């Protein structure tokens, strides 16, 4: 008896179920535009792409490590190739994965197909289809470290919603006040989340995708999350992390809009004997976000900001900014130009950064600071700002000399602003030779070329 005869003899209800099962097994899921599907060992291993001018297909692996076997993904925009794979065919392209992420962008005049090969049963992944720009990405920007204590860290997201700076012009050349007004935050900011984990947890060995990293519970507690405009690059999410462990290496990722992941940064918390406190969110010093030689603020606050800083620190600084701006505007800033490159507004901005850097001494921890850092044992009150409470010994991370010379370059000569020279006594009060090259007696010869790096090393205080 033939197989068809045997099948024809089955009960009608069973035939209906069998036909439904066979039909379902051959059904291919159609990807919808600007959506993401989650899959694991799909059957059949093909996904249909609708027609479109320029579409981006993106892949993100959600499980496994960078050393485990991974599936291969192929895409075609040729309607005659129904099952794209490693066997080739007309207009078949492999979506190459890098640390778990890959994408392919092209036109689909007659639609297309995505094929999956060698998918391990335990491997889950996401497929996204979008217009032009891939949904899954590893973005080039990364989080920014402000500073740490033994159990806290100030972290910032990559910038977004940049502010357009319009310098004043003649005849109404009015510079910002010493305490400038903060612009209204964006009503629809980018959705960022932060992941912080001990580096020993092995996040670097995971697939570097948002769906994989999001499975890891972040260490510590986000005690405060807010928006802050640090500079002209744009707004940032600011996170205050608490509950961290002293002298521990941490890895930080930020995830943007659920599917985009930043490159990691690293930091080390200070030793348990570190006694300085974090300060941030100062409108008159918007870039300041580090530890200063102050005791812990009164409960319930756990860091300092513009609402609880002692007036002995803020009053002289605001007065200096006000007086400097008044003196600067005695020059005909909007009509006569003292430089073809910089203006009075540039001078005021540079002076603000320098004044804030020297007014708020930055604490360092000799146990965790890089060996080449510009450290100086200090006693509060110190010569730069006697407003700090007395009787507190701390190690100061000296300001970068370039913070001073940037002000010297940006300001008109009649102000008489001068910086110490490297070949004489600059190293007594500034970090010398970390940024600029070794000329004219500069110590270190620009040995790092940067005031900080993505591993949490800070060699001098730039005021940023």
From TrEMBL:
One GO molecular-function entry: calcium channel activity
Record flagged with keyword Transferase: no
Pfam families in alphabetical order: Mid1 (PF12929)
GO terms under biological process: calcium ion import across plasma membrane
Signal peptide feature range: 1-25
Alphabetical keyword list: Signal
Protein origin, superkingdom: Eukaryota
UniProt xrefs under PANTHER family: AEL197CP (PTHR39142:SF1), MID1P (PTHR39142)
Protein name: Stretch-activated cation channel Mid1
């Amino acid at each position: 008896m033939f197989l068809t005869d045997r099948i024809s003899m089955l009960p009608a209800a069973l035939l209906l179920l069998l036909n439904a099962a066979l039909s379902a097994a051959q059904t291919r899921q159609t990807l919808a535009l600007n959506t993401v599907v989650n899959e694991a060992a799909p059957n059949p291993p093909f996904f249909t792409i609708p027609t479109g001018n320029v579409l981006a297909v993106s892949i993100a692996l959600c499980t496994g490590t960078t050393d485990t076997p991974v599936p291969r993904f192929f895409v075609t925009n040729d309607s005659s190739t129904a099952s794209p794979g490693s066997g080739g065919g007309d207009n078949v392209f492999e979506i190459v994965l890098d640390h778990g992420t890959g994408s392919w962008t092209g036109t689909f005049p007659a639609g297309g197909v995505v094929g999956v090969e060698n998918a391990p049963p335990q491997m889950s992944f996401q497929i996204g289809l979008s217009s032009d720009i891939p949904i899954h990405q590893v973005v080039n920007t990364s989080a920014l470290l402000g500073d740490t204590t033994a159990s806290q860290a100030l972290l910032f997201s990559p910038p977004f919603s940049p502010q357009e700076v319009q310098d004043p012009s003649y005849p109404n050349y009015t510079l910002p006040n010493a305490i400038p007004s903060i612009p209204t935050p964006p009503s629809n900011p980018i959705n960022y989340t932060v992941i912080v984990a001990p580096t020993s947890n092995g996040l670097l060995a995971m697939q570097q995708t948002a769906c994989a990293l999001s499975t890891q519970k972040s260490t510590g507690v986000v005690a405060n999350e807010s928006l802050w405009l640090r500079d002209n690059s744009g707004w940032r999410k600011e996170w205050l992390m608490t509950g961290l462990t002293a002298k521990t290496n941490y890895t930080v990722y930020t995830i943007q809009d659920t599917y985009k992941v930043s490159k990691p940064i690293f930091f080390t918390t200070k030793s348990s004997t570190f006694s300085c406190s974090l300060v941030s969110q100062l409108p008159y010093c918007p870039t300041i976000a580090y530890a200063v030689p102050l005791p812990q603020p009164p409960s319930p606050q756990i860091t300092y900001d513009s609402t609880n800083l002692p007036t002995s620190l803020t009053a002289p600084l605001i007065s200096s900014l006000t007086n400097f701006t008044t003196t600067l505007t005695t020059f005909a800033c909007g009509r006569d130009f003292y430089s073809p490159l910089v203006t009075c507004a540039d001078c005021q901005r540079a002076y603000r950064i320098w004044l804030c850097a020297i007014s708020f001494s930055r604490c360092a921890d000799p146990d965790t600071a890089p060996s080449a850092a510009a450290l100086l044992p200090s006693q509060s009150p110190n010569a730069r700002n006697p407003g700090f409470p007395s009787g507190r010994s701390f190690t100061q991370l000296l300001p970068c000399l370039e913070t001073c010379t940037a002000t010297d370059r940006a300001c008109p000569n009649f102000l008489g602003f001068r910086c110490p020279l490297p070949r004489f006594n600059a190293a007594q009060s500034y970090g010398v030779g970390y940024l600029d090259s070794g000329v004219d007696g500069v110590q270190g010869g620009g040995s790092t070329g940067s005031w900080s790096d993505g591993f949490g090393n800070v060699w001098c205080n730039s005021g940023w």
